[in-house]
Protein 1
Amino acid sequence: MRLARLLDRTLVRNLLLTAAIAVVLLFVSLAITPFNNLRLASIAYYFTALAGLTVLTGLNGQISLGHGALMAVGAYTVAILVGRDGWALVPALVAATVVTAAIGSVLGVVAARLRGPYLAGATLAFAVGLPGLADRYPHAFGGENGLIIPPPQPPAGLGSAFPLERWEAWIACATALIAFLALSNLQRSRVGRAMRAVRDDEVAAQLAGLDVARTQVTAFIVSAACAGLGGGALAVVTQLAAPGAFTLVLSLSLLTGIVLGGLGSLPGALWGAIALVMLPSWSDDIANSFSLSTDVQSNLPLALYGVVLMGVIVAAPEGIQGAVRRLGRRLRPRSSMSHEEAA
Amino acid sequence: MSRFVDLTLNGISNGMIYAAVALSLVLIWRATRIINFAQGGMLMITTFIASSVIESSGSYWLGFAVALVTGLALGAVVERVLVRHVEGGPPLNAVIATLGLLVLLQAVAGMIWGGTPRSFPPAFSIRGYEVSGRHVLFGPFDTFTVLAVLGAAGLLALLFRATGVGLQMRAAAFDPLAARLQGVRVARMYTVGWALAALSGSLAGLLVAPSVFVGPNTFDAILVFAFTAAVLGGLDSPVGAVVGGLVLGLSLSYVSGYAGSSLVTLAALGILIAVLMVRPEGLFSSARRRRI
């Protein structure tokens, strides 16, 4: 009885869920090849950024085309602190999160005054403009070539044969789990409910006593922090922070990820992250088996992103997670369904 | 001083190009309350087609004409096939759908023409006029740019004010329901509006291509500049778009000349945010503010 009541608490349930996922990820990373561990690491850092973005866009109704640039902020922070100043990894990742959150708070104040297409245009300008800084200040940011980060060293306690890729996957998965835990609690909290209320009807939310602008700025800060953390993990895994990795295409891929997975859903962010990592390699396979030219091959994932963005919005606005939920509802017995509806 | 004159002249000719793209954004915004984020991709495709036609036929003007005609057709097709599904829906849906089109067009261009930007010929010499023994940063091609954009804007203004189609288009944009009751075919007017907007965009693509080259991503910044110019002008007014384009062209030319060309897009962002903070609905807009 007491256990049941404890399980009713959001924090406890989310902690248990996160721990369970961590255990599963641990075994998965032990079982798979180094190459697949790298893929796992990529899925994890994409998930971190996508989870933040889906909270902003799906839960709070603000669009951002600037999250690729925010990932760049996190990546460059880690690159400068670890590569140049010799910081340890964890404080550097924390710093990346904090720095990006600070920049996100500035963007958020601007964003809280803008709506729909205006917000999209302003964040688009941010995404296109920011990589120019690396070019303008090559001394600090390494110009077109970017900054190199030394590969993270697995602790000696894990044995000398411990593969680097598995260690990178652990780092990236740890950041993803932290983001998941924080965001899944936020969703169910007072702040999360305020975000949804503001998304659905700003006037009604304000009449109910919510501070609309503050809620929107909070959402932007949280979302930017996740993007910074994800970007920092990306820099650690790829051992590089260069402007070429953070073009407008990255921002648009992130948008594709959350739209495909289902706006506002954390499991949806996972579907999106898997798609962003696996689509390029699947399209390589397709291109190889049909012996398509390299121009076609390298642009196939991009073409799929475009089709996904248009197709999902026009035909299935709830994305993959919406379809999964519908399927789950259909499979569940009738009685519990009517119970749920009554509740 | 001569540098300042050069930057000013260069700013005017760039500004007219931004104005042409801004005009295409404004035309669509007025009619359907949608910002066409695919505009940069659409003008990229028509400019690539022009490049191929010029290469195979050897005639610049044939390529020029083909680009304008495909622009017109592309705009109409995009409206009929894609945009019609998101018109009148949540604003976010239209943003995402047009961004999807942008990504698809960039991918298709990369598949057909490859990722390396290629050069594009200007219609006339880009060598500056000689003024008292010095070549200024303004040549015959810049004159052509200014005249072409002003001419296109003038023709559009004439179309809207002096023809029956223009009146119907304005009616459809102003009050779709009332217009439909008066027998205006509102959906068709939207299609015509998108076609005209894409035409203006492809003109801008042909004019800017000699300086930025033609590649799948080379027009990303143009879209940012055009959006900034359109917002400067209030998004609602074609005259505002042209004025906004000029103001932005001049400002960015000075930034590029005195602070470095890699900061130009960030400067545009700064201007955009400054304008939106002071007047969230744009400088010249008469739109009513949405206040709670």
Protein 2
Amino acid sequence: MPSLLLLTDYDHACLAGTHGPATQMAMSILVRMLPVYGASSLLDISAAHIDSTVYMGEATMEFAEKLAALGAKVRVPSTLNVSGVDEHGWKEWDVPADHAAKAHRQMMAYQAMGTIPTWTCAPYQTEHRPVLGQQIASGESNAICFFNSVIGARTERYPDLLDICCAITGRAPATGLHLTENRAGNLLLRLERIPRRLQEDDAFYPVLGHLIGRLAPNKIPVIEGLEVTPTEDQHKAVCAGAASSGAVALYHMVGITPEAPTRNAAFQGRAPEQTIVVTLDTLATARAELSTCQGDRLDMVVLGSPHLSVDEFRKLALIVAGRQKHPDVAFLVTCSRAVRDIADSAGLLDAYRAFGGRITVDTCPLTTPMLPGSIKHLMTNSAKYAYYSPGLLNTQIAYGRLEDCVTSAVAGRILRDDTLWNA
Amino acid sequence: MERIIHGIPVVPGAAEGAALVTDEPISFWGGYDQRTGEIIDRRHPLSGQIAAGRVLVVPFTRGSSTSTAILLESVRAGVAPAAIVSREVDTFMALASIVADEMYGKPIPIVALAEADFERIEGGQQVCIEADGRIRLLNRGHPEPVEGPPESQ
């Protein structure tokens, strides 16, 4: 491991405690991590997104409260990821009071650090959005992927507990995806003969993301051959899938994402290390992997990983209008409180409430123990919910399009339209 | 007949235990039960195995950035792996270990190996990790580890 560190006067002052004990602790952790990153110096960041907010137990709470008690303040604008509890709505679900209390203590600790309490895993869909080329430090795998790929902001794949150290010091290791030369693609994924009708459908993108993560678990894939320009929500679905089945922190789409005007630009003039052809068959296999359900039993539909956007609420409102879910099936959307309020004031929640749907903000069922034990069969349109539910929630899961999720909730059993996936 | 592998001490420390080996990357979030040390990613080949107290031999972490928090929680709960051997220097695991040191004085020793060396460790094999990154292989392994879970608390 390289041991020569090139620290600035500011870095040394932080280590010496000049900027207070919290900054000292954060800088100490950062400097110990430098050799791990193969870096010898730190660079300035101008924004951060903090995933350390997710309450995982006593240790994450103690870490937050220790920093807060030491007087930690963030040095750059820092949005907050999901928390471990819906602050005002947890009593409507099965969240144990002890969990709610501790998760709330952790929320308060991070708010005390002068952060922006966005409480969302889709921070790129808020007003606090970075810009092309901006150096930032982000946790939350889907957000990391979106910031890098879709916006062209620059962050390494920061783990929980380090993102807050970067925010407190305003510094990050000068390494990895912060540096232009490390942002070149190295794996070419060429889409061949994928029906345009499928590419135009929202259901294509979670599957594409899941497949990208499978094929390029720790590479920078360059996707070529898309005939349509994905919406930001569709990119969001790709990011969530690719960062669940793999550790994808950056992808390029030729002619679409900001650092890939051409294939040559995406690879920074180098040749791909490997080329993989993706066909409808490959995608159909990836799609099948997202479902673990046997049979058509359905207890609950869950949408919103990452958190639903206002546009997605608009789509949902049109699909549920005039319909009502089956009484035995629960229907949940997770989103930020800001998006809920905007959607509500735009009248987008009326039809959804009449349909029988519920909303949880600030968090999601993967990060708060809210679901009753009777919920064993889930359906979702999210690759991330599909990927993690079997392990984290001990449920079976069916992956389907948004339309199929609604139709199934009405019918009371899983119904999926496979037409799009047949040649 | 003891054999020695030389690795990079990502987080230096000494430990000994039976190896739990996989070629498949792991996400601790959604993949590791922080109360029991069980691998709970039902799509993972080690699903159902208990990693607490074992030397976990895993290429790298994938997926969620919450993996660090889970590993830290498992240290606090006493169900972390005794040590981790990876194929690449993995920042998530290293951070968990460094914060476990800062918070609780209990770092998890982590050693990174070259690919050919990584494949030399067999499941169930007793291995001893040294602070300088040396790994001593103490006996032959068996591909299907048969140890049960540790005594419940």
